[in-house]
């Protein structure tokens, strides 16, 4: 099925999303630097961009930068004066991301905070709430990231959690995989929190079978 999923993804992207030399170059830079190809797909990047546009986000938090591919998709949608804070533990990933963000012309609106995300989140202090939060780092920490996301959110904030289906393993209650355990707890916490209205969507495509959660902080 993977071949078919990829072919459909490629067809849809070709029809719907204009070719973008900068984003293509960002992926090439990541590959040259030896970064793993675990960025969002082009279709998912455009979806993130549309979410930013739909909620008119001025302040975005991203947990998990890699080379900044998803960061560029979202940062481009920010209005003048908007800001995106992205958290990355790996110094090489952070360095490549900074280069890519400069190259893409969005560096003035983006801060790459290097270090373990939990540490950065603990030290953010008093700051205006984020309008959109994209959780896409180490999955065992997803429950912790959700707690922090709620801390830095406001009514109307959109919280997106990536890679929550994991080829269907999410349904396995006896899994020993810490990432699956993390996303299961994250989903259960999301569903049990009366402050959130949430759903999740399974996806197939060039990145295989996975999915994302979408949670709205209620008024
Ligand atoms: C799936 S990748 C992010 C992909 C990126 N959002 C994109 O679509 O282009 C996950 C990233 O999270 C980073 N990461 C893993 N554990 C982390 C932690 N504890 N704190 C911050 N970043 C972490 C990894 O180094 C990796 O770069």
Automatic annotation (TrEMBL):
Q: Which InterPro entries match?
A: Cation-dep_OMT (IPR050362), SAM-dependent_MTases_sf (IPR029063), SAM_O-MeTrfase (IPR002935)
PROSITE patterns recorded = SAM_OMT_I
Q: Which controlled-vocabulary keywords does the entry list?
A: Methyltransferase, S-adenosyl-L-methionine, Transferase
Q: Which domain of life is it from?
A: Bacteria
- Gene Ontology molecular-function annotations: methyltransferase activity
Q: GO terms for biological process?
A: methylation
Pfam families associated with the record: Methyltransf_3 (PF01596)
- Cite the PANTHER family for this sequence: CAFFEOYL-COA O-METHYLTRANSFERASE 3-RELATED, O-METHYLTRANSFERASE-RELATED
Q: What's the name of the protein? A: Methyltransferase
């Amino acid at each position: 099925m993977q071949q078919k999923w990829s072919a459909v993804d490629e067809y849809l992207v070709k029809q719907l999303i204009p070719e973008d030399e900068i984003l293509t170059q960002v992926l090439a830079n990541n590959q040259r630097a030896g970064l793993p190809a675990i960025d969002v797909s082009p279709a998912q990047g455009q979806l993130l961009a549309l979410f930013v546009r739909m909620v008119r986000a001025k302040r975005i938090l991203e947990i998990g930068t890699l080379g900044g591919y998803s960061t560029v998709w979202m940062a481009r949608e920010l209005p003048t004066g908007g800001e995106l804070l992205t958290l990355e533990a790996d110094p090489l990933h952070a360095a490549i991301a900074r280069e890519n963000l400069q190259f893409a012309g969005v560096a003035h609106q983006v801060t790459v905070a290097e270090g373990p995300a939990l540490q950065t989140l603990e030290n953010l202090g008093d700051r205006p709430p984020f309008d959109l939060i994209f959780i896409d780092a180490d999955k065992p920490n997803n429950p912790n990231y959700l707690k922090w996301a709620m801390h830095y959110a406001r009514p109307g904030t959109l919280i997106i959690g990536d890679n929550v289906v994991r080829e269907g393993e999410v349904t396995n209650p006896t899994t020993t995989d810490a990432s699956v355990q993390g996303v299961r707890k994250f989903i259960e916490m999301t569903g049990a929190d009366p402050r959130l209205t949430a759903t999740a969507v399974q996806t197939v495509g060039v990145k295989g079978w996975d999915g994302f959660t979408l949670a709205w902080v209620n008024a």
